[in-house]
Amino acid sequence: MSNDPTGMNELHWLIDMVQTIEVGLVVLDRQFNIQLWNGFMENHSGVSPNSIKGKNLFKEFPELPSEWLTQKMESVFMLKNRAFISWEQRPYIFKFKNYRPITGRADHMYQNITLLPLASLTGQITHISVIIYDVTDTVVNNQQIKAANEQLEHLSQTDGLTQLNNRRHWQICMQREYDRHERYDSNASLIMLDIDHFKRINDQYGHVAGDKVIQHIAHLVGQSVRETDCAGRYGGEEFSVVLSDTSAQEALFFAERLRKKVAKSSIVFEGKAINCTISLGICDLANKPENSSSWVSKTDLALYKAKQDGRNRTETYDPNANYDQVADKAE
Ligand SMILES: Nc1nc2c(ncn2[C@@H]2O[C@H](COP(=O)(O)OP(=O)(O)OP(=O)(O)O)[C@@H](O)[C@H]2O)c(=O)[nH]1
């Protein structure tokens, strides 16, 4: 036999649970007047159930997206079906502050919402229930994971010393440009550049000064490229740039501007001014390299020709030139 023949205890328990559950519960009538407002709603809004009962939801909370929300609720009344509103659609419906210490980074509570049709004893939908779930912890965790992944991705693509693309990632960009050329016959230029007599800088001023010089050149390279270009640190003191939709002739302007900028600038290290120059090689895709590595090799030939011809200069790959003398060094 039941200890609670009238069901009064059960009702009491249910009311207690509705009041204390960590989920927002609101019941609205057909005119969107509030019939039930549980403890969660009271705690987060500061409005007590007694003071709000019978009042119109949209009048009491004018900041709610009333037109949009009314439409959603009307369809629940009409179709007698549940509706869901995800935080991804709208981060929140009720602008509640976020008080959770762990997820203190969010200044408001992210919410998932369910709109539930409530039937009367005669089966008519006379009310709807709005159920509000606080999903702030999940959302903030996801955002932190996403940010960490983005950071990791950036780190895996970036050269630590110069913040330019590292060789591996630069090669992916270069290959992408080469593939684009194969498909659409687009043009692009490749520039390889190398600091002249860098060994001497290291020997004279030390490795730390050498690193500063590398950083300085990288900075000038990074400053000079467009968003669609891709600059990378190819090796120790060698850099590479892919210039999209750029002929060798146009790339020569870029290269010469950069070369002059480097020659004019100096790096002050421990009170001493260090000057350096760079040599550059250019090859565009109009030269029809048979694959992307041949594109790099041809550009390298031009670079080594620039070195051989005296450094602090730019050389453009010439398909009719004889590179036998520099070929060994370029390999
Ligand atoms: N400080 C520093 N030096 C580096 C780094 N990577 C490579 N190097 C040095 O760069 C120098 C490159 O020297 P070489 O390849 O002989 O060429 P170079 O002295 O620049 O002469 P040319 O290229 O022929 O003008 C070597 O001494 C390397 O040790 C780096 O990350 N930091």
Radius of gyration: 34 Å
Which small compounds were modeled alongside the protein?
guanosine-5'-triphosphate
Number of helices: 12
Cα separation of the termini: 94 Å
How large is the share of residues in beta strands?
A: 15-25%
- Kindly report the average pLDDT value: 93
Largest sheet: 5 strands, antiparallel
Structural class: alpha+beta
SS elements, strand count: 12
Q: Order of SSEs, N→C?
A: HEEHHHHEEEHHEHHEEHEEEHEH
| CATH-level-2 architecture of the largest domain | 2-Layer Sandwich
> What is the total domain count?
2
The first-level CATH class of the largest domain is given as Alpha Beta
Categorize the overall geometry.
Answer: elongated
Q: Which fold does the CATH topology of the largest domain refer to?
A: Alpha-Beta Plaits
Uncertain stretches: none
Cross-sheet strand order for the largest sheet? 2-1-5-4-3
Question: What would a concise description of this structure say?
Answer:
The chain has 331 residues and is α+β, with helices and mostly antiparallel strands.
Features:
PAS; diguanylate cyclase activity; 5-stranded antiparallel β-sheet; alpha+beta; elongated; about 325 residues; binds guanosine-5'-triphosphate; Beta-Lactamase; EC 2.7.7.65; PAS-like_dom_sf; Alpha-Beta Plaits
